[in-house]
């Protein structure tokens, strides 16, 4: 039928669904005592899955550094990521960026349009001459006073009408841009670099100027491979742990 769009959703493997649920539980603090994590038998019964599914899910969380499997002790939650207050983020797809957004909160302030900082423009490989829309925000984790990160986001000047509709207290910027701009995120690149905290970021993060921070620079591309958003998030090292898991075919 003309004009009708047909999509086929790829069903996510059950072990990945289980891993997502267990990850949320760990990061939510459901197991304050590392030894409280359920046994394989308990997980099989609770989620009505096979032992193979449970083991694959636990293997995934182990690779992310959230849990440890110890002979004679069972599965324990890793204190460095789950209990010390650091935000632990895995990344293998855009959905996990959204999970990061759901586990924390951020409020943006829109600033005057400006050119992309020269060093960032050179790293990405774009011209710094155009003025992009700029948003500045603090990302917070429930129960903690100091910010997890300071984020600066630049939105393409081509999206003037879309930017007018953005709610600075609302959903993730790129999801709002997708909705209001009628575009789809098809590619995200990121670069991670340890740098010295500049005075402005140090003050906002409650650290000393020059202290090390982890800068995560992300570029969002649409279905036409157009770069429409750039974000730079600055994390104090003790408040953030990063992992990447790779599925082997």
From TrEMBL:
GO terms for biological process: negative regulation of DNA-templated transcription. Gene3D superfamilies: Chorismate lyase-like (3.40.1410.10), Winged helix-like DNA-binding domain superfamily/Winged helix DNA-binding domain (1.10.10.10). SUPFAM superfamilies: Chorismate lyase-like (SSF64288), Winged helix' DNA-binding domain (SSF46785). Residues 12-80 form the HTH gntR-type domain. The keyword Electron transport does not apply. PROSITE patterns: HTH_GNTR. Pfam families: GntR, UTRA. The keyword Manganese does not apply. Keywords: DNA-binding, Transcription, Transcription regulation. It comes from the Bacteria. GO terms for molecular function: DNA binding; DNA-binding transcription factor activity. PANTHER family: GNTR-FAMILY TRANSCRIPTIONAL REGULATOR (PTHR44846:SF17), MANNOSYL-D-GLYCERATE TRANSPORT/METABOLISM SYSTEM REPRESSOR MNGR-RELATED (PTHR44846). This is DNA-binding transcriptional regulator, GntR family. It comes from Parasphingorhabdus marina DSM 22363. The lineage of its organism: Bacteria, Pseudomonadati, Pseudomonadota, Alphaproteobacteria, Sphingomonadales.
């Amino acid at each position: 039928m003309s004009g009708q769009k047909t999509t086929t959703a790829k069903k996510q493997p059950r072990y990945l669904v289980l891993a997502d649920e267990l990850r949320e539980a760990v990061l939510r603090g459901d197991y304050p005592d590392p030894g409280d994590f359920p046994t394989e038998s308990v997980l099989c019964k609770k989620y009505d899955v096979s032992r193979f599914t449970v083991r694959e899910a636990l293997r995934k969380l182990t690779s992310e550094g959230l849990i440890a499997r110890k002979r004679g002790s069972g599965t324990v939650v890793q204190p460095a990521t789950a209990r010390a207050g650091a935000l632990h983020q895995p990344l293998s797809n855009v959905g996990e960026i959204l999970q990061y957004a759901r586990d924390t909160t951020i409020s943006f302030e829109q600033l005057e349009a400006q050119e992309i900082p020269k060093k960032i423009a050179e790293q990405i490989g774009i011209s710094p001459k155009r003025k992009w829309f700029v948003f500045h925000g603090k990302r917070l984790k429930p129960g903690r006073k100091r910010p997890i990160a300071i984020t600066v986001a630049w939105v393409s000047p081509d999206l003037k009408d879309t930017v007018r509709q953005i709610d600075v207290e609302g959903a993730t910027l790129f999801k709002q841009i997708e909705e209001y701009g009628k575009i789809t995120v098809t590619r995200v690149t990121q670069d991670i670099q340890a740098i010295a905290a500049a005075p402005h970021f140090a003050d906002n993060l409650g650290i000393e100027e020059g202290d090390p921070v982890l800068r995560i620079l992300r570029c969002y591309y649409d279905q036409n491979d157009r770069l429409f958003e750039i974000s730079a998030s600055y994390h104090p090292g003790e408040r953030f742990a990063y992992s990447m898991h790779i599925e082997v075919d």
